[in-house]
Structure formats: structure tokens, C-alpha cells
Design a protein that fits this description.
Blueprint: H1 2-5, H2 15-26, E1 34-35, E2 39-52, E3 61-64, E4 70-82, E5 90-91, E6 95-97, H3 109-120
Antiparallel strand pairs: 1-2, 2-4, 3-4, 4-5, 4-6
The structure holds zinc ion (ZN).
Length: 121
């Protein structure tokens, strides 16, 4: 399964998030999430979904502790539409935190969140 999934580009799958959001809007469900003068409240949170001190790839971020042990990890920004009046959230397309072309510093949650906002504003 990994031989198939690891070679699959994930961005085309993001259309599912757009399709779900459009379906909620067309069905009238999205307006339940309007907040403060008709705006939507979007929460952005980072989450590690892979971590290892042994296995790593070119897309890993890494952190070296005081003992010199390096930990490699993958993270993602997971944006959701939230409302204080709703118990469910609506998931939006994620932003992966990976090394960016032309950047010497590692990617981070703040930079990933800024990319997501620039792309989806
Ligand atoms: Zn990796």
C-alpha cells in the first residue's frame, strides 16, 4: 500500500475539501457557521503526523536535542471552520509544513499558516 500511496500527489485530493464546502454552502448548512457580522471563523492548528529518529526523507523537518539526537518529523496545518454555536467543525484543505524552495531555514507552523492564508484568503 505504501508503494502506491507514497508516489501519489496529494494536492489533487484537496478538491474533496472544496467539493464538501460547496456542498455545505449549496445545501444551506454553511450559513450556520456565520459569526460576527456574517464572517466565518477559521482555526489553524499544527499537528505532527510522523516522527522518527531513524527514518527520514528530503521532506522532513528535524530537531536536534541537547544530547545531539536528531528527531525527524512531518507536520501539517489543519484549518477548520468553527462556530461557538456548532459542535462540529468543517475541515478545509491542509497545508503541509515541508522545506520550501529558496528557503534556507526549516519550514514552521507560522510560515505554513501564512501560506495557507495567502492561498485561501
Ligand atoms: Zn520525511
Amino acid at each position: 500500500m505504501r508503494n502506491v500511496l507514497d508516489k501519489t500527489e496529494v494536492e489533487p485530493l484537496f478538491n474533496v475539501f472544496t467539493w464538501v464546502l460547496q456542498s455545505f454552502e449549496q445545501g444551506g448548512w454553511l450559513k450556520r457557521y456565520k459569526f460576527l457580522e456574517g464572517q466565518y471563523l477559521i482555526a489553524l492548528d499544527g499537528k505532527n503526523y510522523f516522527s522518527s529518529s531513524k527514518i527520514h526523507c528530503s521532506q522532513c523537518n528535524h530537531r536536534t536535542d541537547q544530547n545531539g539526537k536528531t528527531n525527524y518529523f512531518h507536520s501539517v496545518i489543519l484549518p477548520v471552520i468553527v462556530s461557538p454555536d456548532q459542535s462540529e467543525v468543517i475541515s478545509l484543505a491542509p497545508e503541509f509544513i515541508t522545506p520550501q524552495d529558496g528557503h534556507e531555514k526549516q519550514d514552521c507552523e507560522v510560515a505554513g499558516a501564512k501560506r495557507w492564508i495567502d492561498l485561501h484568503k
